[in-house]
Recover the amino acids of this structure.
């Protein structure tokens, strides 16, 4: 008995490890991957380049780093892929950095998407299309120079950004003159913040173009108008208490200004450039004239957006740091 017990003790961990290995290997069935890539293809075909004048049907590389596998909608000798119905699969090569985003491999720009992805269809497609947009940004003059928005960790920057967001949220909910007034308020708050931080304008603009337009594009293609507006409102609420806005504010500001532009007759996307201020484009599209004394107006209007409460929240945050 002791002899067999001894052998079993050593065999059992191997069986457990084998079981875990199989479980991990089967975490993504090839049919599941095919479904995900077909969903992406269908959304790209539905858009057919109408949004930006070019397709987002780019080479995609889904990477399962845990199991050393890659899956793609595109064949490539560079990867030594094998076909499976309408997709391709192979071993993860050493030269692929498993970092989400665009990567030039060979003569192509690939959208690298690490697995796992969210179970929710819309959420996972938004991630894929966001990165697909990054792949075509340089072709559209929408790949900006580097930026650094570290000022967004400052108390007053957060305060005026939150006021801008509150006004934008009201603009989403309003129509006619009420919408126009809310946008005007958002622009005043925005101007006030930028006046406090002299050289921040360009960096903020570039972040809103780079990540804001990628996020707008993904959400626009994956949701109908009603759901997109609801998503933007929920996004604001989820971001409100973020410990830092440095690397995230454009994911709300950019898509909201773009959404507001879509409610106008302007063909704004064909003229958008990497250095543009999307809020200034909104101001022009809505024919908004800012008040003579923007800063006094911003201070007075802040009362209507719970300015004192927001300042209290930011003071508490500052003291807690």
């Amino acid at each position: 008995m002791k002899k067999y017990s001894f052998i079993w003790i050593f065999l059992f961990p191997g069986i457990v490890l084998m079981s875990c290995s199989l479980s991990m290997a089967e975490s993504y069935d090839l049919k599941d991957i095919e479904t995900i890539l077909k969903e992406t293809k269908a959304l790209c075909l539905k858009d057919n380049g109408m949004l930006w004048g070019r397709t987002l049907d780019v080479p995609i590389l889904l990477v399962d780093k845990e199991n050393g596998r890659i899956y793609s909608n595109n064949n490539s000798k560079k990867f030594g892929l094998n076909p499976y119905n309408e997709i391709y699969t192979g071993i993860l090569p050493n030269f692929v950095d498993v970092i989400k985003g665009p990567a030039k491999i060979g003569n192509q720009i690939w959208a690298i998407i690490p697995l796992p992805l969210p179970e929710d269809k819309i959420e996972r497609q938004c991630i894929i299309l966001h990165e697909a947009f990054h792949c075509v940004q340089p072709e559209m003059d929408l790949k900006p120079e580097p930026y650094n928005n570290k000022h967004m960790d400052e108390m007053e920057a957060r305060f005026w950004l939150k006021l801008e967001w509150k006004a934008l949220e009201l603009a989403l909910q309003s129509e006619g003159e009420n919408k126009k007034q809310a946008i005007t308020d958002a622009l005043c708050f925005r101007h006030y913040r930028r006046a406090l931080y002299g050289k921040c304008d360009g960096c903020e603009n570039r972040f809103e173009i780079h990540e804001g337009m990628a996020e707008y594009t993904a959400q626009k293609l994956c949701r109908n108008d009603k759901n997109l507006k609801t998503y933007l409102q929920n996004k604001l609420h989820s971001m409100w208490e973020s410990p830092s806005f440095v690397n995230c504010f454009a994911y709300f500001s950019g898509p909201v200004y773009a959404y507001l532009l879509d409610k106008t007759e302007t063909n704004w996307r064909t003229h958008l450039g990497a250095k543009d201020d999307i809020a200034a484009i909104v101001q022009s599209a809505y024919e908004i004239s800012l008040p003579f004394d923007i800063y006094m107006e911003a201070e007075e209007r802040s009362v209507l957006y719970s300015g004192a409460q927001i300042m209290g929240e930011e003071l508490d945050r500052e003291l807690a740091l």
In short: Residues 2-25 form the longest helix (24 residues).
